[in-house]
Every structure is written in C-alpha cells, then in structure tokens.
Amino acid sequence: MIHLLLVLLFLSSAYANSLDLNTHSKDIDLVLSRNGKLRIMTFNIWLSGAEVTDGMKKIARHILANNPDIVALQEIWTTDVIGNLTSLMGDKWTGICKNQSYPDAGILSRHKIIGGTESEIESGIGVQIQLENSTRKINFWSVHLEPRSYGPYAAFNKMVTDKSQIFAGELNTAFDWGGRVQNVQELLINEDFKNGVKNSSTIPLLVCGDFNAPSHHDWIEATRHLHAGWVFPWPATKILEENGGMVDSFREVHPDPLETPGNTWSTVQKFSGKEWGYSIPEPQDRIDFIFYRSPQLAATASKTYSGTMHLNPIPHHKENDYPSDHFSVVTDFHFK
C-alpha cells in the first residue's frame, strides 16, 4: 500500500508539473476541467516550425501540453500543415486554414468545425465551432495582421518625432496593400463577423492572433519609460474594441501593464539585424491577443507560454525545444 501511495504521489506530482509550464505571467494556474470551461490558445508557429529541428512535432507537442479546446494559428506555410499537425495530435483534432498557396491563418479544434461556416478575409479566417457534448457554439476567428511597417521600430527611432509618423505605418498609406488598420476594418465589415457580433449574446465571438502591433492598453503614461518616451493609442486593438465590442482577455485578467507586461514578441529575437552583429536591442512587446465578446463568458486566467526549457536567442535557436519566435497566449474562460 505504501508503495502504491508513493507511485500515486509521484504520478500526481508529474501530472501537476506537466501543467506547470512556462506561465511568463505571475501565479497562473489554468484549470483543465471541461465542465463549463473553455481554453483558447493563439500560436504563431514561425514558418510552420521550419526554424527549429523537428519543428512540426514540437508545435504539436506544445499545443497538446496546454490542452486547449481551440487554437488560432498563424504562419501556416502550406495547406498540408493542418493535416500534418492533426495527424500528430490525434483523432479528436481537426482543422482548417485559408484556401491559398500561403494560407497563413488557420484554426485547430478538438470540437467540430461546422461545415459551410468558413469565412475569409485578407488577414484571417473565421468558422463556427460546435462544442462537444453541448448545445453551445463558438464563432471563432484567427488573424495575422500586416507585418510590414512595424510600429515599435518607428517609435524607437530617434528621428521619429510625431505620432503621425507612427500612424502612417499602421495605415500603410503609401503602398498598394492595406495596413493593420485596414485589416481590422475589413474584419469589422465582414458579413459573418457582423452576424457574430449581432448574435454574440447567445454565441460567443472570439478573435485571436498575431496583430503585429502593440495594444493601446499598454503604451500608457505609466509605461512611457518602457516605450522610448511614447504614449500611443495603437489603432488596431483600439478599433476592434471600440467598434467591435471585443475585450482583450489577457489585459482583463492582468489590468496593470507595468506589473504584467505579457510580452509575446519575442522568445528569441532579442537583438535586431545580422548585419549589425545582433548588437541592437529588439523592442519587446505584447502583440498576440485573444479577444472575446460574450455575456456568457468570463475570462478566469490568461498566460503567455514558451515551454519550460531554456531558449537560445537568434542566431543560436535551431535546437530550441519551443518552436516559435512568439510566445503563445492561453486564456481560460468559464461559462457563466
């Protein structure tokens, strides 16, 4: 009996430790019970794992380690990636991505993706998901906003002296492609998204992904000293919240950006530029988000995640266990 108890205690400890992944946020204990719970993850998989050895297997393993219900993916390199991941993750998993040569945005789910509900925009894909053994449904979007003209680079450039210069990058006004503001505006006018907003009192609506821009909640007076002296209302998150009625789950759980920055960029990009000998510090920021809109849901815990093993920075990253240059974000919700 004593031997059995010791074995059980060891297994219990091992299981607990398996859940005690790298929270990157303070004192987070994400509950895995499926009873009235919903766990969401957003994960930029960095060229589908190509930047590390056995990257695809590592992506699958780190998703399974977090035990999410639904995962928003970014940087899906080909349409084969979803099938490769689900085959590694098990029969309960299914997925979908944008139908183009470089899909980029996609969704994995342990619940049924309802056929015929797919909706695509330039920066993402949305579907409706039927939760297993439940009458509940979820309207879910994965997005990857425009990466060019990255705003913090302008903010940390000493030649930039006016907010209008930073805003220009968020709009990409001088180019043929839309900026992050246009990406969010396209989402807001999408008919399926608008229906999701309309029905959000009964069907929760989630928008998750890599915004390639900080949050307007984070660049405030209290954090000015962290952001090259700037207070800046980053428009992508601001427009989504004000015009879409969405809530930033991480910042709702951790309202103080000074106490809990929650940076997701970057796990390994700590210095910029091979041509500069990786001697110039890379601005670190929170650019990956899980937004929701629903009176039925309450965000109970939220964390950033990068595994448990030490990560070597670029250019020494090839054998890292965690396969991404972004921290992923995991939020637990409770159905009220």
TrEMBL record:
Signal sequence range: 1-16
The UniProt record lists the keyword Membrane: no
Annotated GO MF terms: catalytic activity
Record keywords, A-Z: Signal
Domain of life: Eukaryota
InterPro entries cross-referenced by the UniProt entry: Endo/exonu/phosph_ase_sf, Endo/exonuclease/phosphatase
Entries under Pfam families matching the protein: Exo_endo_phos (PF03372)
Boundaries of every Endonuclease/exonuclease/phosphatase domain copy: 41-326
Protein name, entry field: Endonuclease/exonuclease/phosphatase domain-containing protein
Lineage: Eukaryota, Metazoa, Ecdysozoa, Nematoda, Chromadorea
